[in-house]
């Protein structure tokens, strides 16, 4: 396999973390007069844009020049100060609100129509009777099929004002006529908690994928659920979590800390500081706690891990985290666009900054992942580079380090073999999802009569299905040969079927069966003979 294929999962991960930010609700005071005072440098930039607009020999889209200019300015500040253009703002806002107003379906633009993968449980579409496999052909009389329809237009038609109604015409296999289904739009959650279940009789497992406005409530419900089911120990999985709002991270950390513990310190360029102190409201302040992190756990994930580690609370397991210790605030530019500007640094309770250097530019900054891969850090704890000058000691006497991420208490190496990297990529790939959708198109009725428990226990992936996927993957653009990994592939196929039929919790439950970090926890929890 060539270099590009070998490192494809790595490059995808880099692209994911490139978009992270840490939402700030800090109260540092800004002098408005100072910010917006007349300034010759600002006048110079405005005058240049005006000259180009009115005098340049050719017609020029000055909006695009402004976008390029803003991006160029921010790129010279730090890697996490970013510009959000008008056409991307609403999607970004939805992501961080943790919901949007729509009908609540996941779908594919499949062949020449919209194919429903799954109606979100308890969402507007599910309540109205939309099912997986349905084709939405018309929305309020507007045609939603054919070669000229686009995903953007689909989203525009299906989103709308809360409590507004959309009249759909739906094709369903087995029905002689199109179905008329009216759906009342409502808030649809963008789920933050991917999975909540018990690893065994004692250990509850919660996987969190972001820190949006709704994430704390989702997390709290998940924590209550596993505690009500008798869990006395908790695993919080923050692997691959790129971050989000600072106050959400603080509230989640507070659930695990006793009263009057420092959670976070932030400091702006004027030296103004804000501290966040834990309250007595935590629901899990004493039980055994494990937090899973990896090289893609960033910003708010690192706040949680750092607060717990520095307060000698729980055990951090995995690999060194991303290393982002900067705080952003979103600021409107007045035309529907916005910037997220770095306004402060944050420090963990022992006083360490975990922000890694970015003075050599964004390209160098985001190649750090590949550098870790090459220098062996992902497979050997001894290869993690730490500086004695950035050594700190927790109240319990544990040595921790600043200067580039949270170093775990217990290191678990990454399987960097081509086989594992390939299977990891395939397990969550679009072409696997597409293949499974096509399989369900022909076999959906088989699963409608099967509940989740019987699926877990009794369903076996047909050998013909995995063989079909091996051929499909080999012929697909990915051109991957998976013939040597049939047993692993069966598990991945079963997980992807579960995701489309039963939801993300079932998907994570099945994929986690052979997870090395979770197996490490079970090993630690097994009494020594």
Automatic annotation (TrEMBL):
Signal peptide as annotated in the record: none
SMART domains membership: PDZ, TSPc
Pfam family, one: PDZ_2
Domain PDZ: 83-159
Keywords carried by this UniProt record: Hydrolase, Membrane, Protease, Serine protease, Transmembrane, Transmembrane helix
InterPro entries: ClpP/crotonase-like_dom_sf, PDZ, PDZ_sf, Peptidase_S41A, Tail-specific_protease
Entry's transmembrane regions: 7-24
Alphabetical list of CDD domains matching this protein: cpPDZ_CPP-like, Peptidase_S41_CPP
Superkingdom of the source species: Bacteria
Similarity remark: Belongs to the peptidase S41A family.
Record protein name field: S41 family peptidase
Organism the protein comes from: Jejudonia soesokkakensis
């Amino acid at each position: 396999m060539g270099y590009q294929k070998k490192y494809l999962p790595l490059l995808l991960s880099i692209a994911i973390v490139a978009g992270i930010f840490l939402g700030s609700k800090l109260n540092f005071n800004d002098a408005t007069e100072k910010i917006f005072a007349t300034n010759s440098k600002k006048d110079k930039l405005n005058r240049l844009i005006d000259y180009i607009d009115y005098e340049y020999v050719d017609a020029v889209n000055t909006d695009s020049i402004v976008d390029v200019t803003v991006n160029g300015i921010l790129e010279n500040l730090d890697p996490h100060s970013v510009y959000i253009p008008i056409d991307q703002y609403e999607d970004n806002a939805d992501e961080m609100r943790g919901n949007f107003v729509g009908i609540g379906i996941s779908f594919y633009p499949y062949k020449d129509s919209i194919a429903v993968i799954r109606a979100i449980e308890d969402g507007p579409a599910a309540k109205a009777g939309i099912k997986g496999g349905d084709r939405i052909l018309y929305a309020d009389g507007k045609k939603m099929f054919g070669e000229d329809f686009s995903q953007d237009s689909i989203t525009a038609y299906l989103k709308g004002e809360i409590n507004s109604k959309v009249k759909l015409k739906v094709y369903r296999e087995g029905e002689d006529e199109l179905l008329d289904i009216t759906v009342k739009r409502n808030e649809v959650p963008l789920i933050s908690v991917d999975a909540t279940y018990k690893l065994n009789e004692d250990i509850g497992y919660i996987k969190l994928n972001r820190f949006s406005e709704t994430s704390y409530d989702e997390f709290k419900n998940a924590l209550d659920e596993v505690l009500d089911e008798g869990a006395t120990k908790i695993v919080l999985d923050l692997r691959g979590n790129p971050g989000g709002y600072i106050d959400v991270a603080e509230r989640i950390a507070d659930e695990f800390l006793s009263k009057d513990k420092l959670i976070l310190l932030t400091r702006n360029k004027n030296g103004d500081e804000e501290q966040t102190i834990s309250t007595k409201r935590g629901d899990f302040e004493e039980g055994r706690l494990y937090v899973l992190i990896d090289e893609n756990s960033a910003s708010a994930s690192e706040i949680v891990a750092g607060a717990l580690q520095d307060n000698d609370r729980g055990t951090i397991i995995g690999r060194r985290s991303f290393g982002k210790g900067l705080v952003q605030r979103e600021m409107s530019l007045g035309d529907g666009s916005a910037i997220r500007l770095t306004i402060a640094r944050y420090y963990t309770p022992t006083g360490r900054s975990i922000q890694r250097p970015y003075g050599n530019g964004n390209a160098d900054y985001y190649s750090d992942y590949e550098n870790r891969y090459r220098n062996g850090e992902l497979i050997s704890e001894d290869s993690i580079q730490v500086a004695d000058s950035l050594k700190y000691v927790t109240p319990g006497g544990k040595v921790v380090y600043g200067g580039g991420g949270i170093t775990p208490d217990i290191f678990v190496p990454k399987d960097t073999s081509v086989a594992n990297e390939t299977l990891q990529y395939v397990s969550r790939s679009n072409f696997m999802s597409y293949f499974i959708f096509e399989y369900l198109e022909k076999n959906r009725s088989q699963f409608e009569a099967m509940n989740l428990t019987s699926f877990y226990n009794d369903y076996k992936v047909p050998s013909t299905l995995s063989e079909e996927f091996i051929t499909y993957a080999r012929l697909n653009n990915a051109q991957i040969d998976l013939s040597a990994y049939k047993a692993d592939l069966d598990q991945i196929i079963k997980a992807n079927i579960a995701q489309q039929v039963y939801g993300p919790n079932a998907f994570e439950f099945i994929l986690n069966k052979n997870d090395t970090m979770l197996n490490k926890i079970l090993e630690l929890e097994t009494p020594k003979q």
